[in-house]
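Example 3.
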Amino acid sequence: EVQLLESGGGLVQPGGSLRLSCAASGFTFSSYAMSWVRQAPGKGLEWVSAISGSGGSTYYADSVKGRFTISRDNSKNTLYLQMNSLRAEDTAVYYCAKEKLVGATLVGSAFDIWGQGTMVTVSS
Amino acid sequence: DIQMTQSPSSLSASVGDRVTITCQASQDISNYLNWYQQKPGKAPKLLIYDASNLETGVPSRFSGSGSGTDFTFTISSLQPEDIATYYCQQYDNLPFTFGGGTKVEIK
């Protein structure tokens, strides 16, 4: 079964750091681009960051550029999001999502598999 | 960034009704448009990809159409289990962007 399982969320003070993980199973992880998508409480979906299957290309929303870093360890089938200098407006459920199209260097298609989400709360 | 304008923001319909949601892109995105369903407390689920392709396992009452800047999502006969919020999403250009969502309720 294709599955994504996020972890690492929690309560952090403004200015703090947190690292999210997303463990993948049931598919050839290195062949697919992955993204992080977040959803603030009661709000819509916001794409945060993407990484190619090979890990050679990364992309960020302007709202997190310079503060967040996406990475992946294909030997461990795991996606990461290092979040630094956290702000109250980063409070959200963070989902990892797998892209539908296969291709180690490709980024951009539908998100066909989503994790269950992990909650990040930035508050003093 | 490409803005995705989704309408209506909410709707109420009866079981068996035909439901239509529209999504307009701020520039031509060809057919690089997807539709997702999100139920409360759950992750989004892909329903339609590339504007009109039904994802495997998704009931045929869901459909999508359009290209360029104007897109339509249709539920041909609304069922109680379709109560959810629906989002469009473009992937023609980074950053990927979502519409604001349409909350569908039963009348």
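Chain B has a mean pLDDT of 98. The radius of gyration of chain B is 13 Å.
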